[in-house]
Design brief:
Layout: H1 5-18, E1 81-84, E2 87-93, H2 110-124
Antiparallel strand pairs: 1-2
């Protein structure tokens, strides 16, 4: 009965069902060793640009700057926002404010939504 129970459920569902990564980071505590810089993270919603073509690159509008500034002006835009997977620099997430990043209810970004739909497709085969 916590005020954030619905968010926590939604967020944790993203981890357990679609293998989504946490998109947040804490600049005072970095987990730089968690992801090797020479290997693309396997999770669909973070990238270190080693193999970005296999991620959401095709979902970014050509007018959107890459990297995309962490500015509310880019809210609602698929981009390449620095900071994710517990790492402030060199790791990128697709959206300014997805349920995998901030306390927002039922707001998976288009990249996370695609990962969920892809997983549903695996079960529907």
């Amino acid at each position: 009965d916590n005020e954030h129970s619905e968010f926590v459920f939604t967020h944790e569902f993203g981890h357990s069902f679609a293998d989504l990564a946490d998109e947040y980071y804490d600049s005072s505590t970095a987990y730089n060793e968690l992801h090797k810089s020479t290997v693309e993270p396997y999770r669909p919603n973070i990238t270190n640009l080693v193999n970005f073509d296999a991620k959401w690159k095709n979902m970014i509008d050509k007018k959107t700057p890459s990297p995309t500034p962490n500015d509310p002006k880019y809210k609602g835009v698929v981009g390449l926002f620095e900071g994710g997977g517990y790492i402030a620099k060199g790791m990128y997430r697709p959206y300014f404010d997805c349920s995998m990043n901030k306390i927002v209810l039922y707001n998976f970004c288009p990249v996370c939504q695609k990962a969920i739909v892809d997983m549903l497709g695996q079960y529907a085969k």
